[in-house]
Amino acid sequence: MLSKKMEKALNKQINAEFYSSYFYLNMALYCESIDLSGFAHWLRLQTQEEHEHAMRLLDFVLSRDGMVELEQIDKPKGGFKGINDVFAQVLEHEKMVTGLINDLYALAVEENDYPTQVELQWFIKEQVEEEKTAKDILQQLKWVGDKDTALFMLDQKMGQRQLASGEEE
Ligand code: FEO
């Protein structure tokens, strides 16, 4: 069974994952508004992934006889200043989430809560991937610079993203 402290911290993370989903959706809408439909597609899939992260944690809490209490989701950040700014914000956001996951893990260690440690190891690995992906895309955008043709091609490539089987596991 989860301690009350751990249960509360996991509930907070569930809310943070739902916020991430909402934030990515806001970025997808921005990309639609500047006619980058490939980037919008990529971000919509990211929205789905974040939703899966929230559900995964939610199911974990339930499986440990914990209570899930859904809280209000904050209005997502907006006011993007171009596609480079979007991915700079993605990277910052994922770094922040990595910090939250690390703090949760530290709490699970402090409490000798081994099942929660094991569950969080999946998230720790996922964060390494998410930060790397954001960094790679940001780098590609820097190479593109102000060349419209290159941006067009990158947008096409982003539009080809599919949810890999197991990506939402
Ligand atoms: Fe659920 Fe992007 O971390």
Automatic annotation (TrEMBL):
Its EC number is 1.16.3.2. Pfam families: Ferritin. Gene3D superfamilies: 1.20.1260.10. Coiled coil: none annotated. Its main location: cytoplasm. It is found in: Cytoplasm. GO terms for cellular component: cytosol. It catalyses: 4 Fe(2+) + O2 + 6 H2O = 4 iron(III) oxide-hydroxide + 12 H(+). Iron-storage protein. This is Ferritin. It comes from Caldithrix abyssi.
